[in-house]
Structure formats: structure tokens, C-alpha cells
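Lab meeting notes turned into a lecture example. A postdoc, R.K., suggested we walk through two folding results consecutively so the class can see how the record format repeats. The first protein's sequence and C-alpha cells come next.
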Amino acid sequence: MNKKLYKIINKWTNKINHKNINCFFYLLKIVVVLFLLIILILILLFNRINVLKDNLDNNLIKVAYYCKSIKYGGVERVMSIIINYLSKENIFSQYLITKSDILEGEYPIPNITKRIRLVGKRTSLFEVIKKKKIDILIYNFYEKREIRKLNKLTNVKVIYYDHSSFLYWIYLKVYKFEDSIYYEYKKCHYVISLIPVENDYLFKKWGINSILMHNPTSFEYDSVIPSDLSFKNIIMMGRNDDPIKRFDLGIKAMKNIIKEISICQMNIVSLPIKDYEKLILDLNLEKNVRFVGFQKNVEVYLKNSSLHILPSLSESYSLALSEAKIFGIPSIICGLDYLALAKKGTVIIYDDNPDTIAKESIKILKNDKYRKRLGNEARKSMEKFKNHLIAKKWVKLLLSVYKGDDKLFKELASENENKINDLEANKILNNQLNLLQKRNTLFQHVTLNQLKLFSFY
């Protein structure tokens, strides 16, 4: 190639390459600037949406529910049902604050519910209350120090949801009022009680400002097809890791039950534990008793059951009992005559003898007329505990608390049509004292007055 021509070509090639490089960097700058502009627009838009959302929330009552998780226990199930019902109202913005992260198989809550998880110590309950400007907190724990701190807050109103019973704490060896959770409740403005004799009698005696509420049930009354009670199946439900539940009494009772009714089966809706599995093997009941595991929906077992056994040492409301009754299933309960659902369709025994449980079970399972009468009573008694009625009372409660209307709160508290009178309260407390004395020699010389005052030593 001619040297002169080569120089000309080389010169133009360098010019083109240099120009291309400059064009590339120029285009790159444009892309970067556009990218940054888009990011800025998105940030501004996101902030604007948040501002609009905050403004919308500010026009609503911000209600937060604080519990361990939204899976497994009765408390969690109750919170889920209440959140779902109140989401239908257009006056609440709801928050769920849990100590755990999101778990597989949780009870369902609406997508519009704001979920806040206090995992580890990165965020505290008090920071959430302040940051989200919570109006009302539904508190589901028994942490005394936390309760004291919450009671000092002026920017939020707290409703303390008492899911236990005073007998529960006595069985856990809390023997002085000053050591009990009730000493803290005296300083609380709003307390929810689930037990009539506590709310109507004991709490008033102890100076606790409480209101009686009923827990919603996992099933809608009008949607349930009751059990036809034709199967010789027994059901027990609850968390077997809680010794208070005493599933061993029901298992032991089965030894005598199958002597009279060989085809009888017992389904325990709970996760198995080794002690109970060993008991079943020791009594040769592996063909008649089985654990079916934790179930979010126990309908498949309820609709094929003819008897429910509740051998718990203490309860506050018992979702298991409400579920059995809504399916029209008779129940045998051990001394729990203080429960809101204790009457109608139940047989109450006042001892802890598996033979007594077996005797009553056989009577119910063998007598069709008796069994069906109990089942009808159980089912009919749940009409006044329908979920939509309970939800209405919740709306009234939250509005009275939000407005700080003590008069409205007292009116709501006085709506209880079956208020326990002194005579009935004394009868129930006498029954519980007798059971305490049977179960623990420490209570042999305890008087009824000491029980009423929650002061034994």
C-alpha cells in the first residue's frame, strides 16, 4: 500500500475511534443522570405515597395487637379472629406486633394489617408505639415490668387482655396478691376479663377496673353443621406441652371406656410428647388413642366426635370447649364451673379420678337420648356467643377507650345480662377451694376468705 495512503487511512481511523470513545462516555453520563433522576422520582413518589398513607391512617384509630406470634396457641387464634372482624370496619387501622418472625402455617390476617416483628432487640415495643403513633394497644402478656412502663405512657391507651385465671397462678405457686399479676392490674385503666366470677366479684373486690368479654370462636355458628353424634369417638384438644391440660386423665379413662365400648376411639388434637406416648403403650391403648398433631382447622375431627373431654386443671375461656359446643358435642369438664361456657351441654365432675371420667363417658356414649339432649343444649347455648356479636362489643369497647369515655366504658361493662351474684360467686369459690384442698395439702387449712383475698401466707 502507498505510504501516503496508509497515513491518511490511519489518521481518519484514530479520529473515528476517539470520537466513538467520546460518544460512549457522553451516552454513559446521560444514562447515569437519567438513572439518578428516576431513583429520585421514585423516592419522592414513595415518600408522597407514605405521606398520603399516613394522612389516611391519621384519620383512623390506630389499634395494635401485641402477642408472641400469630400461630399455635389460643391467644394467637383469638387475635387473628378479632383482627379479621375489625378489618371490616372503616374506622380502624390495625397493627400486629409480634415477638417472633413470620412463621409457616400462621393464622390468617388481612393483607391490610401492618405487620411489625420485634425479632431480637433491634426494635422495642415502645419505639413502635411512638413511631407509629399507636392510639390503642391490646396487650397479651404478663410482664410486670413492661406493664409498669406502659402505664406511664401518656400517648397510648392500653387494654390488658387477661387470658389466664387466678386459679392458674395459684396452681403455679403464686400465693400472695402482691406477687400476682392482679397487683399490677389494680394500676391499669382497662382490663379484659374472660371469667364471670373474676370480673363480677373478685376483680371488683380487688379494685381492678375490668370488663367481661367473650372470646370469638374459630367457626361461624351459622356455617357449622353439627355432629350427628353417631360415632363412638372422643376428642381432646389443646397444647400438650402445658401440664395444666392434663391429657393423661383422659388417656387413663380410656382404659375403662373401651371395656364397655370396644370400638371407642380418642383423637387428641395436639403434637405428641414422649410421656403420653409411653402412657398409651403402657395401657395397651395404641389402637384406641392417637395424637393427630397440631391442626389449624379441627373441623374434620369435631364433626365425627360424640364427646369432648376437658380435663384441664384451670382455664380462662377454653376455645376447645367453645369449638366442641358449637358442633353440638357434649363435654365432660373437671371442676371448671367458673367458665363462661360451663353451663349447658356439659357434665362437671369435681374430682380428678379417671374412673369418674370413664363412668360419665360411658353413660353419654351408650345413651343416645341423653347424648343428643346434651349436644342440643351445647349447640343452642352458643347462639349468644356468635362472633359478630362479640365483634360489635369490641367496636364499642375500642371507641369508649379511644374517646376516654369512662361513662361509656362502664355502661358497656354493665351490659352483662348474666352477672354473677354474691351467692353464686361464693358457691363457685367454695367448689374451687375444695378442689384446691384435694389437690394440694398446703391448702388444707386455707379459708374461703383467704382465697377471696388471694392471700394464703
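The second example is placed directly after the first for contrast:
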Amino acid sequence: MFAPVIHRLKTHFAYVLLATVVIVHLAMMGSLFWGYLNPLFHDSDTLPKGMDFFAIYQAGHRALENKSVYAVTLYYGPYRYLPAFAYVFAVPANVLSQWSAYWTWVAIYELLLVVNAYATWRVAGRGKWGVVGAAMWFLFTPFYLEQYMGQFSFLMATAILWVGIGIARGREVIAGPPWAASLIVKTNTALLLPLFVRLRWTCSLLGAAALVGLNMFYFVLRPSDIKVFYDLNLRVTQMGPRHFLYQPGEQGLVALIRNTLMSGDPNSHGMPGRYVVALAIAVVGLSLIATFLFSNGDPLALFAIWLSAYFLIFHKVWEHQYLMYLPVLVLLVALRPAHRWWALAAFVLIALPTPYWLLNHVWNTGPVPMTVPPAYQEVWPQWGVILHHAMKPVPVLALWGYLVVSELMSGAGVIQRVALHTT
């Protein structure tokens, strides 16, 4: 009696899944208006809506006034991007009022989300796993934080998706332009440089260098802003007052290590910067070995390895920035059956909210320390601190390690088979 129904459910499972996650996504976005999801995340629980968007919007306003785009404001966050982005995006955004520009950006992101899901389905051959890959775009909680803060990580995710598609297809003309453009928005995709060298895509390397070089004109005119840009983005600061280092919004591996050390030692004030340097040398070194040791590496796996490195070595990684990892997971699920289940497992853990709400609004029944920023984790249990900061970087670390080992074993296996054949 139920056999035909079960058969139809199995046949159309992927499409039922897609419809379900779209409905959940719409419910998630409704919180932008009514705020019912805000307590689940540190940034939406403590920071004003649109804070990051307005920082960039104000940078455009300062550019129009011929002032430094890096000038500090009292209400908005600092402008951290390259100067070109302020002129290319933020200046045109000033045609609209602040809130009109913000809500327009939210709407554009929703359209980009649909475009990315459709592109994923098409690239995967319109099959079952293509539908699953498309569904992954709609059910990823960092997207809510991205929209709430008015961030630009999803713009990067869109560019990264097309870079990955071009790499998977071996088409420089597809991968090169979005890679070069992404470097103007956020510079973390510079980590893909070794892969582009490995692929010998010279035109892309020259184009990226030219676009990044355009920013030098700004810094020549305002040389004092070079230090501001460096301090905001590249300076490693892992020591200081405990309440400034306890940042629940940070979700990188560096933050996990630092907060684990601090939670175990009440007298600790962070960790030495040399720990971060050692971690970076280890991750980058193994990634380089996986990239260049053998000539038969899978470019898409190497693409995933290098984008994983950002979340493992950068000194500040925020929760919404995991949107830049979503294309990695989507493409591995849609295009690489050998890595599919590892990528899916990582996706589930990263897509879920952290235990922030449970720790801060349920477990913590006492007052939160009144510091700026509030040292939430001073009143959290040690296991809670570690669990909160492990939720996202540990899956990335596991997937990165798995892919590095897989690439090395695959390359060694080919060499061994060739050697046996020749003897």
C-alpha cells in the first residue's frame, strides 16, 4: 500500500529536500525583520544591524569628500578592505540612503544565492547530487549573520564558486577573472596563488597583480594609511587584556587554541605570536607539498586545501566568514564522490549555530561581566569555551588533513604503479 509512496519519496527526495531548505531559509531571513534568531549568535546578539555595511558605506562617503577611507568612526566598525573597493562599491552605494542601500544589498544577496544554487545544479549535471549541492546554499547559518551585519563574505563566496568551477573544468577563462576580482574585495584568496602557479595560469596571475597594483596609487597619495591597513588585517595580536581576547564571534583555529589556553589558566593573557607563525608554517608547508610534490594532483582538492588554510592560520576569523568556505563544500559534494561524505560532515557542523545561546542564555544564569567587549567566556565552563570555538575550525582542520593525505597517497600510488609497470 505504501510502496508507491515510498518509491516516489525516494525518487524525488532531493527535490523535497531543496523545497524544505528553501522554506527554512525564508524563515531564517524573516529574523532580519523580527529578530527571533538574534540570540543564537554573538554578533547579532550584541552588535547593531548593518554595522559592517555602514562602515563600508561611510568609507564611500569619505572617498567622495576626498578624505581617508580608513578614518575611524565612533559607531561603525573600521574599514578593512583595499582602497579600490571603497571606490568601486561604496561610492556608488552612496546614491541611496544608508538603510535603503543596506536593504538593497540584502535583496541582491538573495538573488545571488539563487544564482549560485542554480549554477551548482547545472555544473553537477542536474542530477541528485547537484540538487543536494544547491540545497546546501540555503541552509547555512553564517548567511544569516552575513545579512545581519551587511558583510561581504558572500560576495567573495560567489567569486570563489566560479573560481572553483573554472578549476574543476580546467578553464582559466572561467577561474581567472573572479579570482582577480575577489582580491579587491578581500585578500584571503591570495592563498590560491600557489595553485594558479601550479596550473601555470600566467594570464590570471598577471591580471590579479595588475588589479591589486591599482591600490598603490591610493597609498602613494596617503602613505600613512599603509600602516592602518597593515594593523587592521595583517598584524598578529594574540596577547592583551583577557576580556578583549575573549571574542565568541571569532571562529578560527587560532582563536580555538588561544581560548583553550586562556580557559585553562586564569592568569593567561593570550598566547605568543610565535605559536601562530609556527601553525602557519606547518599548514602552508604541508599544503605546498601536496600541491607541488606530485604532478597528478586533483586541482579541485588543492583548491579546497588552500581555501581551508585561511581558517586554520589567519589570526582573526569571524563566524560569517565561513560563507567563503561554503563553495568548497558544495563543489566537493557535487563533483567529487570520493570526498563527498567528508565534505557533507564538515558542512553539517559548520552550518549549525555554535552553542553560544546555550552557554550565554541558559547555562550562564548570573550576570555577564560589564567589560567592553563583555568577557562572556569568563563565566562559561571550560568545556563550553572549547566546544564553542571548536564547532567550525575543527571540521575544516579535519577536511584539510584528509585532503592533504589523500593527495599525497594518490600521488605516491601513481608513482608506485608506474615504477612497477616499468620494471
